Amino acid sequence: MTDVSPVSSASAQPSGRLLVLSGPTAVGKGTVEAKLRERHPNVWVSVSATTRAPRPGEVNGVNYWFMTDDEFLAKERAGGFLETAVVHGMAHYGTPLEPVREHLAAGVPTILEIDLQGARRVKQRAAELGLEVVYVFIAPPSFEELKRRLIGRGTETPEQQARRLETAKVELAAESEFDVTIVNNTVDEAADELWHLIAQEYGIAE
């Protein structure tokens, strides 16, 4: 099976709080995360596992941990994932648990970027696993601005945009489920605010 435990032994216990980053579609979670890592490369972002085939240019262990169905299901049965999902009724996706534990135990600022349903699955399981979690919601300045950004990407058809915007309305309504909200007015400001939160959580001098 693919090795997804790069830091220390499987007995490592968490000593910090995991930051779970979520928010509505097109809000810019990935862009904020990328800016944060550009400025603070010591931050570790969890790499998901998947059973789908690698796309051109994707690297195992960087973009995803690529697994066979049998490998994934065996790891799932063994409790090796923090959360899992089946996407489009086909490919399995999951967050490997041990790398999260090990980075937290090593005092490494640790982030999981995930959709709303994934954040809810983490919340259901975190307590039984002994994980302390801070749930961070990345919000747009307004729904109209979110709509402008989505349309401006030019990556979806009008029908797909309409579906995403309906999904975004549902996701925005879940903001109260999170501990902290960061408004993505600009990527720089949101990344700075996220780093301030991380520095507080991990006792890092800014």
Automatic annotation (TrEMBL):
<dbReference type="InterPro" id="IPR027417">
    <property type="entry name" value="P-loop_NTPase"/>
</dbReference>
<comment type="function">
    <text>Essential for recycling GMP and indirectly, cGMP.</text>
</comment>
<feature type="domain" description="Guanylate kinase-like">
    <location>
        <begin position="16"/>
        <end position="199"/>
    </location>
</feature>
<dbReference type="InterPro" id="IPR017665">
    <property type="entry name" value="Guanylate_kinase"/>
</dbReference>
<protein>
    <recommendedName>
        <fullName>Guanylate kinase</fullName>
        <ecNumber>2.7.4.8</ecNumber>
    </recommendedName>
</protein>
<dbReference type="InterPro" id="IPR008144">
    <property type="entry name" value="Guanylate_kin-like_dom"/>
</dbReference>
<dbReference type="InterPro" id="IPR020590">
    <property type="entry name" value="Guanylate_kinase_CS"/>
</dbReference>
<keyword id="KW-0418">Kinase</keyword>
<dbReference type="GO" id="GO:0005524">
    <property type="term" value="F:ATP binding"/>
</dbReference>
<dbReference type="GO" id="GO:0005829">
    <property type="term" value="C:cytosol"/>
</dbReference>
<feature type="binding site">
    <location>
        <begin position="23"/>
        <end position="30"/>
    </location>
    <ligand>
        <name>ATP</name>
    </ligand>
</feature>
<keyword id="KW-0547">Nucleotide-binding</keyword>
<keyword id="KW-0963">Cytoplasm</keyword>
<dbReference type="Pfam" id="PF00625">
    <property type="entry name" value="Guanylate_kin"/>
</dbReference>
<comment type="similarity">
    <text>Belongs to the guanylate kinase family.</text>
</comment>
<dbReference type="InterPro" id="IPR008145">
    <property type="entry name" value="GK/Ca_channel_bsu"/>
</dbReference>
<dbReference type="GO" id="GO:0004385">
    <property type="term" value="F:GMP kinase activity"/>
</dbReference>
<keyword id="KW-0808">Transferase</keyword>
<keyword id="KW-0067">ATP-binding</keyword>
